[in-house]
From TrEMBL:
It comes from the Eukaryota. Residues 42-52, 97-119 have a biased composition (Polar residues). Residues 181-348 form the DUF7730 domain. This is DUF7730 domain-containing protein. Pfam families: DUF7730. It comes from Aspergillus viridinutans. InterPro entries: DUF7730 (IPR056632). Residues 1-80, 97-140 are annotated as: Disordered.
């Protein structure tokens, strides 16, 4: 006996079946297309009021997400789905649509915020969300609502209109009352800074902390400084260290007076200071703790370096390789961070062997790092020390490296002055005796 033709679930017993959303916000029909329904503007059909209505995934009824049924025939409710303004509010949340939207955009907002509409036959359908209601949903209804369709109450609105501009509070960072010195014109204050911050020569030292019990680390190093006699800014000759030398203290007290003076005079203080570094770790520590703007203002640097000698055993060559790499990184970092560098003095003791003492060998690569971004230094003085070569050979190679680092015009002027002094010979003093 042939079985009767199975009818669709929506056609059984004359029920009107609506494809709702089950648990998780998914449709109860696979590959569901909203364009296959009767009304293209509405994604859901009318729901049957019978108690035997179909259930979605997870055993939950296909009831609208969150809310009571609202009859569209009641007064105060909207009946036309193609509205120009839709307001859905839960608590403090308001979403408004301007009147200038097109019909397609209006239909899209209508489908998103309003699930109830009228079909072509004029039948009223059920409505899931209230069009305008300030009453919050109950805990029972809100539990069945998918998370993607719930509104979260917040103090900020989705639409910031022209009338909702929050007042902007601007706080003045300058002090309420300026001192007499700060009220001076900028040119006068800069002239005073130039008189206060004179040329100083500082040797940066790295040593253990004098109070290790105050620090958590077992070994903690700090940077200290020692003042020396400054070099002549014109001839760049180092004065003799013999005799007693009393140097004025560094004008650091003026820098820490206030924030505005610190910001104005910090770069000038670093540009007038001649820094001396004796180890690579001191250089790396100095670049790590100082201000980046202050590093860019440094114009004078002196480096003293002694290379590791070749070890007798190959097991200890690792220490020499690490020392050479640290020396190269220190020179490269000084080139990168000290953009205003103009004067460079290098005193280097070479311990590599065997070498032929030519530019381009491994010992000369850290020095050539200063010429990576082009010759821009005004004065470079390199002194090489090695007992296996004569002093004339060392000076010749040093001048070749200086030519690659210095500015061509500055290097030519310095070479002309050196040749003029050699041709003139030693200066002989003439003594004139007067007899009365």
């Amino acid at each position: 006996m042939a079985k009767p033709k199975q009818q669709n679930r929506g056609q059984q017993e004359g029920r009107g079946f609506r494809f709702g959303r089950g648990r998780g916000g998914r449709s109860n029909k696979p590959n569901f297309n909203s364009h296959d329904t009767e009304d293209n503007n509405s994604r859901f059909q009318a729901k049957s009021s019978e108690p035997s209505a179909s259930r979605g995934r997870g055993g939950y009824r296909n009831r609208p997400s969150g809310g009571r049924k609202h009859n569209l025939n009641k007064s105060g409710n909207l009946q036309n789905p193609g509205i120009a303004s839709i307001v859905a509010s839960t608590g403090n949340v308001k979403a408004s649509v301007p009147n200038g939207l097109t019909s397609r955009t209006s239909n899209a907002f209508s489908n998103a915020y309003q699930t109830g509409s009228s079909n072509r036959d004029g039948k009223n359908l059920t409505k899931a969300y209230p069009v305008s209601s300030s009453k919050l949903k109950s805990e029972e209804d809100r539990g069945l609502c998918p998370r993607s369709l719930q509104f979260v109450a917040t103090k900020k609105s989705f639409h910031q209109g022209p009338g909702r501009d929050a007042p902007v509070v601007v706080r003045d960072t300058l002090p309420a009352k300026l001192s007499a010195f700060q009220r001076l014109p900028g040119e006068l204050r800069w002239r005073i800074y130039e008189l206060v911050f004179d040329v100083h020569r500082v040797e940066v030292l790295r040593s253990r902390d004098k109070n290790p019990e105050n620090n958590i680390k077992r070994v903690h190093y700090r940077l200290y400084h020692r003042q020396l006699r400054p070099r002549d800014p014109k001839t760049h000759t180092a004065p003799s260290s013999e005799g007693r030398f009393t140097c004025p203290p560094l004008p650091i007290a003026l820098l820490i007076t206030c924030r505005s003076i610190y910001r104005d005079a910090l770069c000038l203080f670093y540009s007038r200071t001649q820094f001396i570094f004796n180890t690579t770790r001191t250089v790396m520590r100095f670049l790590k703790i100082t201000n980046k703007e202050a590093q860019m203002a440094i114009q004078h640097i002196e480096l003293n370096h002694t290379m590791y000698s070749e070890p007798a055993l190959l097991n200890f060559r690792w220490y020499k390789c690490m020392s050479d790499m640290a020396w190269y990184n220190a020179c490269d970092d000084l080139t990168v961070y000290c953009k205003s560098l103009r004067v460079l003095h290098i005193d280097m003791k070479i311990r590599d062997w065997p070498i032929s003492l030519q530019v381009g060998e491994r010992w000369s690569l850290p020095l050539l790092a200063f010429a990576r971004y082009g010759p821009r230094l005004d004065w470079v003085d390199i002194r090489l020390h090695m007992g296996s070569f004569k002093q004339d050979q060392l000076e010749k190679v040093a001048r070749e490296i200086e030519e690659q680092i210095m500015d061509p015009t500055a290097f030519q002027i310095r070479e002309d002055e050196r040749l003029a002094r050699e041709l003139a010979g030693p200066v002989k003093a003439k003594v004139l005796r007067l007899m009365f």
